[in-house]
Write the structure tokens for this entry.
Amino acid sequence: MVLGAQWGDEGKGKIVDYVAAGARAVVRCQGGANAGHTLVQGGQKLALHLVPSGVRHPECVIVLGNGMVIDPLALLEEIQALEATGLELRSRLRVSSAAHVVLPAHRLQDRAEEVRRGAAAVGTTGRGIGPAYADKAARHGLQMNVFQRSAGELRQLLTATLEAKRAELAPHAALDVQAACDELVACREQIAPLLCDTAELVHDLWKAGQRIVLEGAQGALLDLDHGSYPYVTSSSCTSAGALAGCGLPPQAVERVIGVTKAYATRVGNGPFPTELEDATGERLRTTGGEFGVTTGRARRCGWFDVPALRRAAAVNGFTELALTKLDVLDEFDSIRVADAYELDGRRIDRMPSDTALQARCRPLYVDFEGWQRSTRDCRSLAALPTAARRYIEFLEARTGVPVAIVSVGADRDSTFRVAPHGEPGA
Ligand code: IMP
């Protein structure tokens, strides 16, 4: 499992691409087109939102699992963009017939709900994720298997669902039911051949001893159950959610990799104890290119937050960390890490679950001297400047999770494995 250990945007796509070498399948388990991952393919930059990041490994089956909410129009657009770069994927792309459909009405509803929340807006990506999951839980959503019905039946189902949505939305947004139905029915012939029981598919691969990578989207602190509710996404981004979202049992899990940046970022609203609303935050944003792939929004930036990572590690059971964007800190002469919080006069080591309490946490920092040397060409722990190694060792000691993978640049090859401590190369 490759999971977000912070608030999303940790660089999971890059780590999935790295660990997928030799794997038989890469599976997305939750979320939808709210996720964003940039892929440089054939000299072209592509933004992936639904297709798993294992796409560049031709031997990998790429699976959109049952826990996802899928916008069929967005999916076809993405497939076509990938095919235009020469990637063949329809023969190895499998979409769960049990995943839920994101309708155009859900996108309108998402935006209307945000307007209604006013100052308390979540800051969603506007991709219809919350309303699609709400319909799923309320048991009036549509599963992707509707695209396996005849065109006539599909039109009937869509018309009934969208008419109900139109009435609900009427005072806030205008939904053109006919146009939406036409667009979706037109997807049927391309979507239907991709559908199958993906839980059975991944189960059979696991039983056959094949390696499977589960690709998380968003991050532990945006999790519906464990994040800063209501400033969260509407799916379960943790290890338990990944299993529910693909149909594998807990015994199938060997490694749970928590991906974390060497600092912290958050998009959207909600508490962020180490946020820097000053020139240092701006410097992290500019150096790290911290602008959203899905929405283009500037990300909020801050220092690494150990209490938050501890919470994520506890909930997910991380066996190791992948530390990304270490190079972004290269030029800083001093670097801070929140080692604990002060909450109402008490020192605490783990982020509390209550959002109101999270908002009152004050970080207690430990200061590090920067290494002020480029790490971009380093391909082993030993090649890193001593100060960078000390920084990593501190994070390992304080979070209690070993760092197994380090990334020092955007390129595919700027990632290296850290040999377990005590082994040659460590
Ligand atoms: P939603 O998932 O679009 O409903 O947005 C809910 C919250 O999750 C907002 O704060 C979004 O900014 C955040 N979010 C959703 N997807 C991502 C992601 O892939 N990266 C970072 N933040 C995300």
Confidence is low (pLDDT under 50) at residues 422-426.
